[in-house]
Amino acid sequence: MIEPKNGYPSGTTISYKCLECGDILPSRPWGGGTHCKCRNIFIDSDAGRLSIKNHDKAEIVKTQGGLLSKIFSGLTGHNFIF
Q1: CA–CA dist 2, 6 (Å, integer)
Q2: E strand or H helix at 12, and its extent?
Q3: Are residues 69 and 18 in contact, defined by beta-carbon separation less than 8 angstroms?
């Protein structure tokens, strides 16, 4: 279970998948910030913020050896520091 007060997980093998548009975003993107095509998920790595508009349409996934594994879906909350 994700505890919002502790923030969302991040790391070199952690990504966020938008179930609305299908984009997969690294939790620590290079070059500042990134967002999915439909703008449901926005990651600002410079400020250490993750914003998700529709948490029911987002999953935390782990990438390992080119494979994706779902860690958590149906996220709740607003903006969290990671």
Answers
A1: 8
A2: none
A3: no
Q: What is the largest CA-CA distance in the chain?
A: 31
Closest C-alpha to 61, from 37, 39, 41: 41
Residue with tokens 């080119």: 66
- 0.85 surpassed by pTM: no
Contact between 28 and 45 under an 8 Å Cβ cutoff? The reply is: yes
**Lateral strand order in the sheet of 49-52:** 33-35, 41-44, 49-52, 79-81
Which structure tokens are listed for 21? 């548009």
Q: CA 35, CA 51: separation in Å to the nearest integer? A: 9
**pLDDT tens across 24-39, in order?**
999 888 877 899 999 9
List b or e across 2-15, with b for residues whose CB sees 16 or more CB atoms inside 10 angstroms. Answer: beeeebbbbeeebb
